[in-house]
Amino acid sequence: MLRAGRPAAPPPRRPAGRPAAPARRSPRRPAALVQVHCHHGAVLGYDREKELLEQMGLEVTIPDSGCCGMAGSFGFERGQRYEVSQACGERVILPAVRAAPQSTVVIADGFSCREQIGQATDRRPLHLAQVLRLAAGGPPARPPEEGCWQQRPRSGPLLAVLAAAALGAAGGAAVIMSRRFSGGSHG
């Protein structure tokens, strides 16, 4: 379970001469698979974010994937650019996401990174801010992103109504204009 709050306090020091207590095995922590955005990683690094995720109780994995391949509009362009984009993603991050258990939180702060992973896998990566929201709200769904993403709106019916209204308005304006210029109604 993700948890928000303070990091665990350091263990108390034992007095000299006392034997150490037997090591207890800690329960398995939830996993997070992180795709660091190229620019973020190159300019700022990701150490603080990783530390924050670990303090939340996550077992963080950051594969050495480099660029996800999308790189803004580069990965959307037809032909060789699209193929290069897919090859970059398939090198490390896309197979890692596909292999991750459904309980793993997939994190990608960059828009292009989230888009590449979302289009090429069955997962919808979360931004760090969404992971913080999950931590504040209790146990995550499986897959975790279902606890953050809203259902995509069905815009088809709304667009049909708006298109009909626009056509009606354009038709009405055309009738008024034709009457004015053809000598019909003067007013």
Describe, in plain words, how this protein is organized in 3D.
The chain contains seven helices and three strands; from the N terminus they run E-H-H-E-H-H-E-H-H-H. It has 187 residues and is mainly alpha-helical. The protein has two domains: 117 residues; 35 residues. It has a three-stranded parallel beta sheet, sandwiched between helices. The longest helix is centred in the C-terminal third of the chain and has 27 residues. The chain is elongated. About 4% of the residues have low confidence.
Features:
187 residues; mainly alpha; 2 domains; three-stranded parallel beta sheet; 7 helices; elongated
Sequence of strands across the biggest β-sheet: 2-1-3
Query: Mean pLDDT, as a whole number?
Result: 75
Broad shape: elongated
Supply the helix-strand structural class.
mainly alpha
The description of the largest β-sheet is: 3 strands, parallel
Report the C-alpha radius of gyration, rounded.
26 Å
How many domains? The number is 2
Helix content: 40-55%
The end-to-end span amounts to: 71 Å
- Oligomerization state of this entry? single chain
State the helix count: 7
The tally of strands reads: 3
Low-confidence stretches: 20-26
Give the ordered list of helices and strands: EHHEHHEHHH
Furnish the topology, listing elements before pairings:
Blueprint: E1 31-35, H1 38-43, H2 47-55, E2 59-61, H3 80-91, H4 93-99, E3 105-108, H5 111-120, H6 128-136, H7 156-182
Entry summary:
Helix content is 43%, strand content 6%.
